[in-house]
Design goal:
single chain; 214 residues; alpha/beta; 6-stranded parallel beta sheet; 8 helices; globular
Length: 214
Amino acid sequence: MFYKGIIFDLDGVICFTDKYHYEAWKETADEIDVYFDEVINNRLRGISRMASLEIILERSQKEYTKEEKEKIAYEKNERYKKLLHQMSPEDLSAEVKDTLDTLRQRGCKLAIGSSSRNTKLILERLGLKGYFDAVSDGTNITRSKPDPEVFLKAAEFLGYAPSDCLVVEDALAGIDAAVAGGFDSAGVGEAATHGKVTYPLKTFSDLLKIERDS
């Protein structure tokens, strides 16, 4: 028996927008005169925009009000969205698309579980608008990973219990969220090193090799 539903994180799993996030955050940090580099950027993976901003502002000499922080985050996102328009279906690898198609042919329901508020824009740019059976993203949650809310809502949208779903993640915080929500998990990249990941994967297509105990 395989999983009825599979819930995918978006960035770092289905596609890679790290370079766009980095460019947008770097320009934003430069504007407010705060040091920012790729090491700091790596700390932002899998967490919300406002949580990311708090990490960046650790190096700031200035205290910002809530309103000022919201303005900075908004301006970063506007830069990021402009960069996202550079994306196209060519940014979706053949391995990922073939694996998704095969899982669907096997009868699995597929969902996205991402903290990003730009999820639908990214899916559209990749040529995946309407492809997934459910999309849970930053527009319908109040708590970001490692809270399991985004995955619990994705499972709810699919109509399945967490025990019937597999979460696919690349971030350690994403595996924490899966565990907290009662999901089995498959980890790619850094997430494959998590001590509680159910299936560490070497490559995305290894999803097709998973054999679940009934």
